[in-house]
Amino acid sequence: MLHLSEKPHFIYTCLMLLAWVSQYVSLSTGFELNHSLTYIWPLPHELTSGNETLTVNPTLSLSLIGKGGNFKILREGFRRYKRIIFKQSSGVSIFKNLRRIRSIYDISQMRIIVNSDSDELKLGVDESYTLFITKTGGKSTAWEAIIEVNTVYGALRGLETFSQLCAYDYTTKSVQLSKAPWYIKDKPRFAYRGLLLDTSRHYFPVDVIKSIIDSMSYAKLNVLHWHIIDEQSFPLEIPKYPKLWNGAYTKWERYTVEDASKIVRFAKTRGIHVMAEVDVPGHAKSWGVGYPDLWPSTSCREPLDVTKNFTFDLISGIFSDIRKIFPFELFHLGGDEVNIGCWNNTPHVKQWLKDNNMKPKDAYKYFVLKAQEIAISKNWTPVNWEETFNAFAGSLNPQTVVHNWLGPGVCPKAVAKGFKCIFSNSDVWYLDHLDVPWEQIYNAEPLEGIDNESKQKLVLGGEVCMWSEMVDTSNVQQTIWPRAAAAAERLWSTKTALSAGNDTVLHRLHYFRCLLQRRGVQAAPVTNYYARQPPVGPDSCYWQ
């Protein structure tokens, strides 16, 4: 994928100096919560709040009611959020005898009502929830926290919101919940809210991928688009074709089928789908390290050889193996940036084209459509990068999901022809473009240019893309965050909610960035000229 070149260094140096000087002003003012704002990210669909401050019991118990009350996902999710909420109040103080220990708390139980007895995770699963923080009624002074949902995945989203309402108070050394009573009725604007992670250009250990999935759940993103394989490396084990991962960088930079399954299971417990991508016919040079017959020639190592049955037998074998790992109904077939001229310069491919009365562009269409047929035969819905739509929209399978990246204007054309679309305009939603500020990401609109309501429903949502040519474990989280949060709110919150709070977004985003840091996510400063740059001087997390 393409990258933007960096601006001259002296501009950045000047901005660093200005920011460093400005920090002295902030030292005298400090950060204070603006109580007119809602510090929940992303903004809920509908809410009301009060002005009371409550205490939350560190032994907060869980009461599960309804058809879905026995799901392991929900019980584990509650324990996970309980650890997050009470992280600072769970230790034993050596001064415990020197201060008063609170014994009465306002909130001591969380009730979750789940109306569905299914924990199937599929695109469009109901993630809505209603959260109440209210008095128990009667003469009692006790309060209760209630989450009512249709599915366990709505409960996970509600638990995330509840966790963001809670904050540790350093004076009382207790967890407090402000602005009670609360009524929050919430649901996502789009069903697909994704983050692409490229593990071919750089390998990411399994634990790093899990930490990224955790961080996605904090912003209510729900699709990890796993770009596993590309021309640089083939790190995934394929049992039917065991030499394919000879194309990995080293024998230590690989994913076993067990690794991949663990990642998918881990993601499900956070309500996150994993969409695998196997990009064909281009971006596939690494395949031929183990199976050289896939290369048209030693001087033409991609696209894959379109003339051989072995090519498509191998693709079918790959799909069969990984279908056992990835249950998500969408499967990405790539199809972008195909150098079809290479085929025309390879004698046996050139002859095959002649024999079949094809030009290279026809062979490109033939390959993509054949790959779609194989994917559909495995009960997948194919997703393709927009080049396939731009080149031969009339021939694509009607089930195809068109994935935009080459600038604006593609989704309106795709939905006009009846295709579903995913928005990832590279001008604004490619996170490797380090000079794209959070405001541009935040203001990008997936439905731009689509006025018809029925056509708007064909836009599944969008995703920000973390291509990894210049990203590895050392800097991936600070390149993703906090800018990915800007897209996350755009994809979750209604346009009405966003327009009402647009002038205060930066204040809220600073707060969310600090929340990520408290949870161990290495989120970079919000307003640095280049994303992922370190702080330019001493200052509070809430000002940088």
UniProtKB/TrEMBL annotation:
Family classification: Belongs to the glycosyl hydrolase 20 family.
Molecular function via GO: beta-N-acetylhexosaminidase activity
EC number(s) on file: 3.2.1.52
The protein's name in its UniProt record: Beta-hexosaminidase
Main enzyme class: hydrolase
Catalytic site positions: E337
UniProt keyword annotations, A-Z: Glycoprotein, Glycosidase, Hydrolase, Signal
GO CC entries: membrane
SUPFAM superfamilies from the UniProt entry: (Trans)glycosidases (SSF51445), beta-N-acetylhexosaminidase-like domain (SSF55545)
Source taxon at top rank: Eukaryota
Domain Glycoside hydrolase family 20 catalytic: 190-494
InterPro entries from the UniProt entry: Beta_hexosaminidase_sua/sub, GH, Glyco_hydro_20_cat, Hex-like_dom2, HEX_eukaryotic_N
Signal peptide range: 1-30
Domain annotation Beta-hexosaminidase eukaryotic type N-terminal: ranges: 40-165
UniProt xrefs under Pfam families: Glyco_hydro_20, Glycohydro_20b2
Species of the source: Gossypium darwinii
Glycoprotein listed as a keyword: yes
A Gene Ontology biological process term: glycosaminoglycan metabolic process
Record's catalysed reaction(s): Hydrolysis of terminal non-reducing N-acetyl-D-hexosamine residues in N-acetyl-beta-D-hexosaminides
